[in-house]
Amino acid sequence: MLYPGVVDVHFDGACNPARGGGIATYGFTIEGERLRYEERGLAVRPGAAHATNNVAEYTGAIRALEWLRSRGFRGAVILRGDSQLVIRQMNGEYAIRKEHLKAYHEHLSALARQFVEVSFRWVPREENTRADELTKLALEEARAEAAGVSPSADLGREEPAAGHEG
After folding, report:
1. Spatial separation of the C-alpha atoms in residues 95 and 93, rounded to whole Å
2. Alpha carbon of 96 to those of 9, 33, 82, 102, 103: distances in Å?
3. Could you point out which of 13, 85, 97, 102 has its C-alpha 20 to 30 Å from the C-alpha of 148?
4. What digits encode the pLDDT tens for the residues 121-155?
5. Residue ranges of the domains in the chain?
6. Strand order in the sheet with 117-122
């Protein structure tokens, strides 16, 4: 399938605690060119050393492009996120200093090359609300699962894919 227009993606990630060893989750929304989709899930295995906020943010962007690619979309994509680190690293403004983030950066860069154009744009958190909500919902679900409690209303949740633990 060839799509002539632009697809808008909002992505987010969260980790509690933020600096590793916690639960890292992602969320994203996709809109445009007859496509409308949202997803949430685990970024990496809970408790993993690289379960960090930055890994979760990268995972949200990666999962969104993987979903688009799996649907045959190869057109232009605008990836919007509130992570200055991810956006600036992808735009070449920041160096990748953390060794474990290099694999995520490389994977996202390789995915981006499979589209006509991918632009990375920073947005303030208040302009990224649905992706943020999905990320928080995934975090609540993961905590409930870890505690052995069934999440209350599971509305079409995607099963989390295997993580890319840089």
Report:
1. 7
2. 23, 33, 18, 6, 10
3. 13
4. 999 999 999 999 999 999 999 999 888 875 554 43
5. 6-146
6. 35-42, 23-32, 6-16, 76-81, 117-122
53-70 and 99-112 helices cross at what angle (nearest 10)? 20
1: its two tokens: 């399938």
Give, as one character, the DSSP assignment of residue 158.
P
Give the Cα separation of 74 and 110 in Å (integer).
Answer: 13
Give Dmax (Cα) for the chain.
46
CATH code for the part of the protein at 6-146: 3.30.420.10
User: Residue 117 and residue 123: Cα distance in Å, rounded?
Assistant: 19
pTM, entire model: 0.86
Give the helix/strand (H/E) hosting 66: helix 53-70
